[in-house]
User: Fold this.
Amino acid sequence: MKNPIGIFDSGVGGLTVFREIRKQFPQEDILYFGDTARVPYGPKSPDTIIQYSIQNARFLLQNRAKIIVVACNTASALALPILQSMLPVPVIGVIQPGAKAAVEHSANHKIGIIGTYGTVNSGAYQQEIHKLNPEIEVLAKACPLFVPLVEEGWEDHTVTHQIAAEYLSEFLQADYDTLILGCTHYPILKDTLIKVTAGKIKLIDSAEVIASELESELPEIETSGIGKNLFYVSDNEEKFRSIASRITGTNLEYLNKVFLGESWFIK
Ligand code: DGL
Assistant:
């Protein structure tokens, strides 16, 4: 593997991003790191998420990543500017492309955002949307139960339908026409969310939009891959493997555990 596209997430959620990137860039080598020892990032403090993100990005860089994709909304919301300012390769995140896609789509200028507490409380999506159009009405809601439901493989369970109906009722009642899936786990719930909203709200999938964003960054960088996938996690390889096979539809050929060690970042 020469210069892979490096992707990191707090765990399995970023595999929805991996899946899209793999589809759109079949020749590229991809190095994926899932921080399964420290997931979830959603409820953690900004300082902690920044520190973890720097360690994750450093691991990808040490393994010659030519670009880093932050496939986690929480890390993108809180750590992207610092990663971009300190790393020698391009770093892209999901917030800006997701906000742009939502603004382009919304006809009635009412955009909903669902994500982790970290993402919602950071205000990152809200800011990006208002940079593009200050008139847009934005409603953001943390949906902390979605991540464990996905991890449990309950994307189509009755319980998940009930929870989704509860979380999304405000958006439906107030006639929001666009909803950003501001967490990389959520595209796995897409079918359920479409059912619950009766297809009345356009869902913006951050995994799809970041793959398109990558397209505009990649041409400047020499491509040299053979379509190889390398997966690293910080814990629980077998649990990762079973969820990952479900999300990617493949058996992970190369999966290893890595210990990232002490942080070298002191604030
Ligand atoms: N994948 C993370 C995100 O997009 C959610 C999971 C977590 O809380 O770590 O925000």
Q: What stands out?
A: The two ends are 34 Å apart (CA to CA). The chain has two domains: 5-93+209-257, 95-206.
